[in-house]
Design goal:
The complex is a heterodimer of chains A (176) and B (626).
Chain A: H1 4-8, H2 18-32, H3 42-63, H4 65-75, H5 91-110, H6 113-139, H7 143-175
Helix pairs in contact in A: 2-3, 3-4, 4-7, 5-6, 5-7, 6-7
Chain B: E1 20-24, E2 28-34, E3 40-42, E4 52-53, E5 56-58, E6 64-66, H1 68-71, E7 81-82, E8 118-119, E9 124-125, H2 127-146, E10 152-157, H3 163-175, E11 179-185, H4 186-198, E12 202-209, E13 214-222, E14 225-234, H5 239-258, H6 266-285, E15 288-294, E16 299-305, H7 306-330, E17 340-344, H8 351-360, H9 375-388, E18 396-398, E19 405-409, E20 413-418, E21 426-433, E22 442-448, E23 458-465, E24 477-484, E25 490-496, H10 515-524, H11 526-530, H12 533-558, H13 567-583, H14 587-617
Parallel strand pairs in B: 1-10, 10-11, 12-17, 14-18
Antiparallel strand pairs in B: 1-2, 2-3, 2-4, 5-6, 5-7, 8-9, 12-13, 13-14, 15-16, 19-20, 19-22, 21-24, 22-23, 24-25
Classes of the chains: A mainly alpha (176), B alpha+beta (626).
The complex binds adenosine-5'-triphosphate.
């Protein structure tokens, strides 16, 4: 099996030229998308479809830094699994996570949107920092550290997603 | 000449005559084609009008009237006249849609019945059949206007249509005798019509509020590639609901005055809906209007101000904000990052809607200069021409699935397998383990939706994978693979991994018709009884055979080096068998021979794609892959 980097023809590594990635994706889509093979025999259509599915999956994985990092680690034999990466996390981060959750629960039950927004803001800031740290961990080939940052980012993303879900629900209740 | 179209084929590459785009709308349907200059044009379907009412009336002898003629029967025959059938596509008999204010009469739900049916007097018809009548009629009109056979079409669907609704639309196309080239999302079609026109570049939002559905899509446009970033919507929200809201208010008022509850009287409901719609249209231009409700016994007039109307619909309009916000967030964009907003659908003429859209997207004045009624059909025509006529290298549409797809797991919780806004075509697999000792079968329940619990999602299909060899719990591993094609339609297969016992099942949605049903209906429909079905199938099989042989010939000359030991001979044998079958007149035999050749050349085709990819990446780029 060719890996996602090979499929899109970009060098294997965490730092990718996002512009080049997009351009490459469009180029390949122009060649392999089912629309380009509409009038052909079933075997050809199927083969092109399979390729396009792979191209889409590769692009989906590589365009997003956290997914890209986890994928890269898995290529190096370090499987984070789908969800649980807590074994790579420092205990104090887990403490922080719990406190953050509590703060959110509390603000939510009070319907305190400003507080929730402040929490989201802070999580986003930490997310940016973690992304920096992730990139430099890969630069140093420090896979353990990279795994730790990926796990951290996943926590933060899940936290932000929960906030978003709550905000969406509030918005829906007000407008639905 | 209409039905003989398929008998006149010459060019195996274009076996279906002129490709057209069809906007199969809740209220109106349109057909468009690409003219000699490469411009999309809609076709007059009713006299001078390019909009044909999506209305079907069933006459006593079972034949139908479609369009304006059907709409004229509505007041006198509310049960036999089906309007807004699109709202029922892919719906089951217990869907909430069935209970809304309306003048339909439904067939009693049979136990286990998957599809809602209308009782049109002596006959029960499914929404697919009703839609097929509209499509047949549109096709006939197009053939007469173009003076050419029309056998293939791109049909548009709301982006937010789920799998069952898409499948139903495709079935309707097949039932109308059309080769459905592609189901195209309405906002994407609109973007194509707009974007190509002005060689636009940037990020656009398409806000499409029609008669029965609402969609919003965010697209990024770069050099002819339309990449949908996100889509959201509500497949039962539209101008019809504005009509209902106003009609409801009118009926309440009139019932009080007359001292009789009119809300269950189909004639009164129909009259109130008609009066409400006219008043709504008038209120787009004026501050006040008179709603005329022509009850059988007397005509009642009620004055309505724009402010009153707006207070009735503001809740509905606000609901669109929920979807807009979600689409923006899914695309990871702020409103000010949108370069332009395109308005599509008749209901975007309502001043309150325009006002709302402006606010939603950071005060930007929306674009609405291509006729919002026609823009979808035109985009569909451009794509139809691209797929089956003169293909254009500059155009490519990359669309997404609107709703996540998953399976039911323990405790009625959904495990998502493909997430919403994933670019299609897409495929993903998940592994499940057996939970009991000696378990030999696994039930797989396929659902669509965003909610966590199965009961809050749309149930698409259930099937059972059997033949798992008895093993201790957790040892049996079943891989479930979801594949979504470029039409946004799902197929699912399941495979037992541990022992290598393979079993793949492809499912049809629970609220759809089976292939056999469609086939039977096709054969039963009057139109096709008139022509010789066998001849038609034979010709189709031969055309397909020619196409396969043509492609294969080309591939063999260009990529002979990719053949492996023995493959060439196997392909040659299958090819020979196909040529022999073609000389005969048994279409089954030809189809089987095609399938055999297909199997013999599958790996060869794969290797060619692989090579094409390598070449593309090493710069020795090919313009096209042969
Ligand atoms: N001038 C107007 N003012 C207000 N509403 C209008 C006006 N013109 C059309 N409409 C409404 O627009 C709706 C029809 O829009 P359109 O023809 O775009 O929808 P459709 O394509 O049939 O439906 P859909 O896209 O939902 O399948 C109807 O509800 C109609 O009442």
């Amino acid at each position: 099996m060719t890996d996602h980097f090979e499929i899109l023809g970009i060098p294997r590594g965490f730092r990718v030229d996002e512009r080049a990635l997009e351009t490459r994706y469009r180029e390949l889509s122009r060649l392999f998308h089912p629309d380009r093979h509409a009038g052909r025999s079933a075997a050809d259509r199927r083969a092109a479809l399979e390729k396009m599915v792979q191209i889409n999956e590769a692009y989906r994985t590589l365009r997003e830094p956290v997914r890209r990092a986890a994928y890269l680690l898995s290529l190096r034999g370090l499987e984070l699994g789908e969800t649980d990466g807590s074994k790579f996390l420092p205990p104090d981060f887990l403490m922080e996570v719990m406190e953050r959750r509590e703060a959110f629960e509390e603000a939510r039950s009070r319907g305190d949107r400003e507080r929730v927004q402040a929490l989201a803001q802070q999580a986003r800031r930490e997310r940016d920092e973690a992304l920096e740290a992730l990139a430099s961990a890969f630069d140093r080939d420090d896979d353990k550290e990279a795994a730790s940052q990926v796990s951290k980012l996943r926590y933060l993303d899940r936290f932000l997603a929960d906030i978003r879900a709550w905000e969406d629900r509030v918005f829906e209740e007000e407008n639905g | 000449m209409a039905e003989s179209g398929l008998l006149q084929i010459r060019d195996p590459r274009k076996p279906y005559g002129k490709p057209v785009g069809i906007d199969l709308g809740t209220t109106h349907s349109l057909v468009a084609f690409v003219d000699g200059e490469g411009r999309g044009q809609t076709i007059p379907l009713e006299g001078d009008s390019h909009l044909m009412p999506s209305v079907v009336h069933y006459l006593e002898d079972g034949s139908t009237l479609v369009g304006r003629a059907a709409r004229e029967k509505l007041a006198a025959h509310p049960h036999e006249t089906i309007v807004s059938v699109k709202r029922f596509m892919g719906k089951g008999p217990s869907d909430p849609e069935v209970r809304r204010l309306g003048h339909y009469r439904f067939a009693p739900a049979q136990p286990g019945e998957a599809v809602v049916r209308f009782d049109v007097g002596g006959k029960w018809v499914s929404p697919v059949e009703v839609s097929a009548e509209i499509l047949k009629w549109a096709r006939r009109k197009a053939e007469a206007y173009l003076d050419q056979p029309v056998g293939a079409a791109v049909i548009t669907v709301p982006a937010y249509f789920d799998d069952a609704q898409r499948q139903a639309t495709k079935d309707a196309g097949r039932l109308a005798g059309l080769e459905v080239l592609r189901l195209l999302n309405e906002p994407t079609a609109a973007a194509v019509a707009y974007g190509l026109d002005r060689r636009a570049r940037g990020t656009f939002a398409v806000y499409d509020l029609g008669g029965g559905t609402f969609d919003v899509s965010i697209l990024e446009l770069v050099e002819g590639v339309f990449e949908v970033r996100s889509t959201a919507g509500d497949s039962s929200l539209g101008g019809d609901d504005f009509d209902r809201a106003l009609a409801q208010a009118l009926l309440e008022q009139i019932s009080t005055v007359l001292g009789r509850d009119l809300r269950r009287d189909p004639f009164a409901v129909q009259a109130a809906l008609a009066g409400a719609r006219d008043a709504k249209h008038a209120l787009t231009e004026k501050e006040r209007a008179v709603a005329v409700v022509a009850l059988p016994e007397r005509t009642v007039e009620v004055e309505v101000t724009r402010a009153q109307f707006e207070s009735l619909i503001v809740g509905l309009v606000r609901r669109t904000a929920v979807a807009c916000r979600r689409a923006l967030r899914d695309a990871d964009l702020e409103p000010h990052q949108i370069d332009g907003v395109v308005l599509v659908g008749g209901s975007t003429r309502v001043p309150l809607v325009r006002h709302f859209v402006r606010e939603m997207f950071g005060g930007k004045e929306p674009l609405g200069d291509i006729d919002p009624d026609r823009v979808v059909a035109i985009g569909a025509a451009i794509q139809a021409e691209n797929l089956a006529g003169e293909s254009r290298d500059d155009l490519l549409l990359l669309d997404v699935i609107p709703l996540s797809l998953g399976v039911e797991t323990m405790g009625g919780v959904v495990e998502k397998i493909i997430h919403r806004n994933t670019t299609i075509p897409a495929s993903a697999a998940q592994i499940f383990t057996t939970f009991a000792d000696g378990q030999t079968a696994m039930d797989i329940h396929v659902v669509q939706g965003e909610r966590e619990l199965v009961s809050d999602c749309r149930s698409l299909a259930r099937f059972r994978l059997e033949g798992i060899p008895p093993m201790p719990a957790n040892m049996g591993r079943v891989q479930v693979t979801f594949s979504v094609d470029a039409d946004g339609i799902l197929s699912v297969s399941a495979k037992e991994l541990t022992t290598g016992v393979e079993q793949s099942i492809t499912v049809k949605p629970s609220h759809g018709l089976t292939d056999e049903e469609v086939e039977r209906m096709l054969l039963e429909s009057l139109e096709h009884a008139e022509e010789d079905v066998a001849t038609r199938l034979l010709i189709e099989a031969r055309v397909e055979a020619q196409r396969v042989l043509h492609d294969l010939q080309k591939a063999l000359t260009e990529s002979a080096d990719l053949l492996v030991e023995g493959e060439k001979e196997a392909i040659a044998r299958a090819e020979q068998a196909l040529r022999e079958a073609m000389a005969g007149s048994d279409h089954h035999r030809i189809e089987e021979a095609i399938a055999d050749l297909d199997r013999a050349s599958t790996d060869f085709a794969r290797r060619r794609m692989e090579k094409a990819l390598k070449e593309a990446l090493t710069g020795r780029s090919v313009q096209e892959i042969e």
